[in-house]
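User: Hey, my collaborator sent me this sequence without any context and asked if I could get a structure. I don't really work with proteins. Can you help?
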Amino acid sequence: MISVITCNEYALDFVSDKGLNFGCISFDGNPLGYYFVQSRYQGKILYNGGVPFIYSLFYDVVEESFVLGPAIITYKQGIPQCGIPRNP
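Assistant: No problem. I've predicted the 3D structure and written it out in structure-token form, which is a compact way to encode the shape of the chain:
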């Protein structure tokens, strides 16, 4: 029996970078100047019989682990923010 291959839309939110920046120093809420980049990738993952088989891996610096993401990226956005990084 031949499995059905499908191409599904997929969105991934993750923190792609973090660190310290003098421009983010705020004595009332961020005295060390933490910053992070919240990234959002949208695209497609191919599935074979409901199991993802063509995808990409991205590293989340807050969770310190790899996360499953789209193999074909159709939209990519990175938003730098001041503050302590947290995953949504």
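In plain terms: The two ends are 40 Å apart (CA to CA). You can pass these tokens on to your collaborator as they are.
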